[in-house]
Amino acid sequence: MSNEIEQLKAVVEKLQSQVTRLSDQEDIRKLQYTYGYYLDKCLYQQVADLYADHPDTCVEFLGGRYNGKEGVKRLYIGRFSKSFVAGRNGPVHGFLLDHPQMQGIVDVDADGTQAKGRFRSMMSAGTHDSIKDTHPRGLVQWWEGGIYENEYIKENGVWKIFRLKYFPFWHATFEKGWAHTKPNYVPFLSKTYPEDPHGPDVLCDHPMLWPDTRVVPFHYEHPVTGEQVADDDLRAPHFGEDASTSKPPLVLSKPKSETNGTA
């Protein structure tokens, strides 16, 4: 009887661990989906509040890294809010900026305090004809596709965004599509803070935009082979050319605690 009780205890502990992991994964997906819904409607204060207070918190966007909670606010409440909605928190009439969050793959660390997630966004954005003379973007409509490779952290029992790394993979006007998108369609960030009051703290190496099709590295191993994708397979040479002719593979940044003090 005592052996059976011990076996049952072991089963219960295993099930509790599995339930906790599944619950954490669902909480993180909900967190990322919530991020998308707030971003859709330019609720930038609410977006910033989803980020952790950890000193290594950051957000990477368009070739720049915004460090710390202050950097996060500088991007969303500073750059985005002033550019899209004249500095307010919330939408303005006639401006579309939908960011659906899809294909979420979430992996929680063994200790249950940090996690990584890969998501995709397919953005539709633009202005209505009725505001073309009053909105700074004029009359415009565009598509955008991007990949997130994010890190999350549990602070005081609550999952928060730790390091959001967004790679806008392609852009296209609604009228002509992606086949005719000009290189560097959206210019990479080129100046850092404070030279640019809304700029990043650091410029990232080897940023990518369509038609560059390098692979955003996967945080996870292959579910069957247990292997990572080889670096050369992450590159994107021209048709028929060797991988060595391509730009270097993209590399995901890591927090300072994992890089001997350099992010």
UniProtKB/TrEMBL annotation:
Domain SnoaL-like: 21-164
Region of interest (Disordered), residue spans: 235-263
Signal peptide: none
Highest taxon of source: Eukaryota
Coiled-coil annotated spans: none
Protein name: SnoaL-like domain-containing protein
